Structure formats: structure tokens, C-alpha cells
């Protein structure tokens, strides 16, 4: 196929946005649908990662975009703002998605349906994947898929993405959704939606094109990033009109944000009362383990033990490998020095290239061991529990519990630690963590500290004599 035809086919592929709460298996579903070779890049102007894959369907191919995890469309962080921009078609090279795949945790559907309720109001074709059905069954949770489909006005597919169960049915449902798109009709706050449309028409007459959904979110979320963006782009006049509309729409006893949350949870409770059945089974071992690691006393003791194990392993397990690399570098240098005559070239190769590369490679075992432990702790979900336990201590230091993971990552290297701060919602906490991360003692700095301390000791000893 020539490049022109390839580019044309690329542009003609429909786009499906994959969205969901954090830790619901969204990326696992994405990988199961597309394989393990996604295109990874950043969204324009931000350091938020974009994962794009190709989904093979019965009637062609589609782009699958894995959006950052979010709890609602009330964007409070750059990641959530990017996800909202994708859903509203603001990313130039993506456009408006042709469909949205909502990945929900079947074992915690009440929390997941909050985001789903907001996406159902966007007017886009939607499909819901109920992931972690095995976890739901182990907890005695039974779900009526037919009732959920009736209430959500879209296809609902139960899956276990980690074992590829239901992925074929999900792929077929996505194919049907693209060939026969049908957007759900849901409006839980019709008065706010109507007011947003009226304000958008008024702004359009003033020469300011503002999306009604942005106005709706700005009316409800007084401190969100959407309102900040509108205020920066359109000036104080927009903020004043929003305040006036908010006063007209406001309830006597609660804010618009509280009224919006109440309406959504009333809708969710009504659905789950008919669609979800819970039996009185004993809690599984994972629930008991979760209670243990989150316990204020036992969880803290376990956390200290885990951290002691990690750092003991980093230094003790790495010692044989470090000694081996050091010996290999030394023997290689001696071998090369015997083969070459003395001079500048021999010194450059032995003392410069071999010794220089060896002094860098010698840190690799410690970095790899720490990285493996961090990956294991993240994949098991322990990192999130540790961040919860550390929140009070981190607050005492002027940081948040979310700063714990970037700070721990900085023990391996400060660069990935700084990159991990993008998940911190509060700008102040994010900046403070970025500034503090380079001061964490990574394994590459330890030999430098040892050298400086030994040098200082020699100076003190010589002065004493």
C-alpha cells in the first residue's frame, strides 16, 4: 500500500475512547482488545501520556484511545482535563470520538456509575464493559445485565479482562455500536443544561464560541479547571454571567455541586436497587488483606516492615552483582592495558571509557531491584494503601499522601519520580513534590556521599595530627 493510501485509511478509521475510574482494569481491557503494542506519546502541550492502539473488528479497524483514569468530568488535574478534551473533540488529530467505551469495576459499580452518568449526557454512542466480574462473584455480587442495559440505554458486556473472558463479545458489541450508533438520552439536571444552552447562545452573539458542556461544568464546579480555563480565555464577564446564572439556579439548602451529586446518586441507587444483588458470603482473602494493610496500627507496622525489606534487598541483594560488575570492569581494564602500550590512548580507553562505563553500570543492579519492588507494590495495589497510610505524615511535611509514590520512586531515580507527580491534583502539592524529589538519596548518589565522607574524615584526621 502506498503512503497516501495508508494515510487515507488511517484517517478513515473511527475512534473509540476508553474511559473509566483509576484501577478498574481499563488498560488491561485496552491491551486485550489491541494487543501489547500501542503507540505511546504525549498529548499536545502537556506531559500526559497518550496510548493509541488499533482495534480489529469484523467490518474494519478502529482507533482505540486509552484515556487517563478519572472519577468524574469535573476536571481537577491535567490528566482529567486531557480526558475531558478528548471526549469533547478538542484534540486536533483525534477529533470527536465515534464511540465511548466505559470500563467499570463490577465489584464497585456504585462509584463507577457516577462517571458513567456524566458521559451518558454527552450525546455520544456509549458501551459499558463490566470488568472484574470474577471479583464481583467472589464477593457475592450478582448483576442483572439486561436491567443495566435498559437503564443505561446502551450495551453492557461483562468481562474478565485479565483472563480475556468476554473480550470477543466486547469486540462484537463495539463493532455493532460503530455500525449502528445510538446515543443515550439522559439529563439528570435539565435546568442546568437548559441554562448552559441559553448562556452559550448569548456568548455566541457576543462573538465568543463556548461549548455548552463547558458552561454546564463551570456552573456546577466552581473551583474546577474548566472554570479557570473559561475565565482565562473569555475574561471576567463570563465569570460574572456564570455567577448570576448560578444564583438563579441555586437551591435554598445546597449548592449546585451538591444538588448534582445528589441527583446522580439517587439515579444510581434506583438502578442498583433492581440490578444488583448481594449475598451474605464471607469476605474473601483480598478483603481481609485490604483491611489489614489499611489498619492504622497493623498497617503502619506492615508498611515499615515492607520498606525495611525493600531497602535491605536493594543493598544486600545488589552487593554480589555490584562486586561482579566491579571485578569485570577491573579485569577488563587490566587486560586492555596489557595489550596496549602506555600512553594517552591506553589511558583514554582504560581510565576513561572502561572505567567510566563501569562506574555507571555498577549502579544498575540497585536501580533494577528497586524498580522491580516498586512495580510489584503498584501491581498488587499496595502502593495506594501505603499512600493512604502516609497521608498524615506527608501532610506534616507539607505534602499529600499522593506524594509518597513519586518520593519512593525517586530512590531509584529522581526523573521518573518527578514524572509521577502529574497524578497529584493539587498544584501546590505537585510543585512541592517536584522540588523535594531530587533531594531523595538515589543509589547513584550513595558512592558520591561515601567518597565525600571518607575524604572529609581523612582531612579531619590529618588536621588532628
List the topology elements.
Blueprint: H1 3-12, E1 15-20, H2 26-34, E2 39-42, E3 49-57, E4 60-66, H3 78-87, E5 99-105, H4 109-119, E6 126-131, H5 133-138, E7 141-143, H6 145-152, E8 155-158, H7 167-179, H8 190-205, H9 212-220, H10 225-234, H11 236-249, H12 256-275, E9 276-278, H13 285-293, H14 298-316, H15 318-339, H16 344-361, H17 364-379, H18 382-396, H19 404-409, H20 414-419, H21 427-436, H22 446-464
Parallel strand pairs: 1-4, 1-5, 5-6, 6-8
Antiparallel strand pairs: 2-3, 3-4, 7-9
Task: Outline the structure in words.
This protein has 465 residues and is α/β, with parallel strands linked by helices. The chain folds into three domains: 3-179, Rossmann fold; 190-276, no CATH class; 298-316 and 363-439, no CATH class. Helices cover 59% and strands 11% of the residues. It contains 22 helices and nine strands. It has helices at residues 3-12, 26-34, 78-87, 109-119, 133-138, 145-152, 167-179, 190-205, 212-220, 225-234, 236-249, 256-275, 285-293, 298-316, 318-339, 344-361, 364-379, 382-396, 404-409, 414-419, 427-436, 446-464, and strands spanning 15-20, 39-42, 49-57, 60-66, 99-105, 126-131, 141-143, 155-158, 276-278. Strands 2-3-4-1-5-6-8 form a seven-stranded mixed sheet, with helices on both faces. Strands 7-9 form a two-stranded antiparallel ribbon. It starts with a helix and ends with a helix.
Amino acid at each position: 500500500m502506498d503512503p497516501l493510501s495508508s494515510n487515507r485509511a488511517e484517517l478513515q478509521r473511527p475512534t473509540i475512547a476508553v474511559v473509566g475510574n483509576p484501577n478498574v482494569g481499563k488498560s488491561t481491557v485496552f491491551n486485550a482488545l489491541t494487543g501489547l503494542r500501542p503507540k505511546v506519546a504525549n498529548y499536545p502541550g502537556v506531559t500526559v501520556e497518550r496510548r493509541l492502539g488499533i482495534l480489529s473488528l469484523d467490518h474494519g479497524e478502529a482507533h482505540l484511545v486509552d484515556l487517563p483514569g478519572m472519577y468524574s468530568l469535573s476536571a481537577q488535574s491535567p490528566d482529567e482535563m486531557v480526558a475531558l478534551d478528548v471526549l469533547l473533540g478538542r484534540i486536533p488529530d483525534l477529533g470527536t470520538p465515534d464511540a465511548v467505551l466505559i470500563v467499570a469495576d463490577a465489584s464497585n459499580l456504585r462509584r463507577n456509575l457516577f462517571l458513567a452518568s456524566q458521559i451518558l449526557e454527552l450525546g455520544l454512542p456509549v458501551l459499558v464493559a463490566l470488568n472484574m466480574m470474577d471479583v464481583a462473584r467472589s464477593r457475592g455480587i450478582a448483576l442483572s445485565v439486561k436491567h443495566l442495559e435498559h437503564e443505561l440505554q446502551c450495551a453492557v458486556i461483562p468481562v474478565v479482562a485479565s483472563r480475556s473472558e468476554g473480550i470477543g463479545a466486547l469486540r462484537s458489541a463495539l463493532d455493532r455500536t460503530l455500525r449502528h450508533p445510538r446515543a443515550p438520552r439522559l439529563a439528570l439536571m435539565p435546568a442546568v443544561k437548559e441554562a448552559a444552552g441559553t448562556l452559550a447562545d448569548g456568548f455566541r452573539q457576543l462573538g465568543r464560541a463556548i461549548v455548552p458542556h463547558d458552561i454546564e461544568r463551570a456552573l456546577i464546579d466552581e473551583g474546577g479547571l474548566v472554570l479557570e480555563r473559561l475565565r482565562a480565555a473569555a475574561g471576567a464577564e463570563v465569570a460574572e454571567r456564570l455567577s448570576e446564572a448560578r444564583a438563579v439556579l441555586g437551591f435554598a439548602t445546597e449548592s449546585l455541586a451538591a444538588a448534582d451529586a445528589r441527583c446522580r446518586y439517587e439515579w444510581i441507587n434506583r438502578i442498583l436497587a433492581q440490578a444488583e444483588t448481594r449475598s451474605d458470603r464471607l469476605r474473601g482473602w483480598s478483603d481481609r488483606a485490604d483491611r489489614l494493610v489499611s489498619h492504622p496500627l497493623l498497617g503502619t507496622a506492615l508498611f515499615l516492615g515492607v520498606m525495611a525489606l525493600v531497602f535491605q534487598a536493594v543493598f544486600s541483594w545488589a552487593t554480589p552483582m555490584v562486586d561482579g560488575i566491579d571485578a569485570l570492569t577491573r579485569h577488563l581494564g587490566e587486560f586492555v592495558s596489557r595489550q596496549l602500550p602506555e600512553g594517552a590512548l591506553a589511558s583514554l580507553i582504560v581510565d576513561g571509557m572502561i572505567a567510566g562505563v563501569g562506574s555507571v553500570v555498577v549502579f544498575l543492579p540497585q536501580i533494577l531491584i528497586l524498580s522491580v519492588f516498586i512495580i510489584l507494590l503498584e501491581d498488587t495495589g499496595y502502593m495506594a494503601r501505603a499512600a493512604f497510610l502516609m497521608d498524615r505524615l506527608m501532610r506534616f511535611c507539607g505534602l499529600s499522601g499522593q506524594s509518597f509514590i513519586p518520593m519512593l520512586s525517586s530512590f531509584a531515580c529522581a526523573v521518573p519520580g518527578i514524572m509521577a507527580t502529574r497524578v497529584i491534583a493539587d498544584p501546590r502539592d505537585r510543585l512541592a513534590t517536584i522540588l523535594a524529589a531530587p533531594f531523595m538519596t538515589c543509589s547513584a548518589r550513595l558512592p558520591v556521599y561515601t567518597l565525600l565522607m571518607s575524604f572529609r574524615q581523612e582531612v579531619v584526621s590529618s588536621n588532628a595530627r
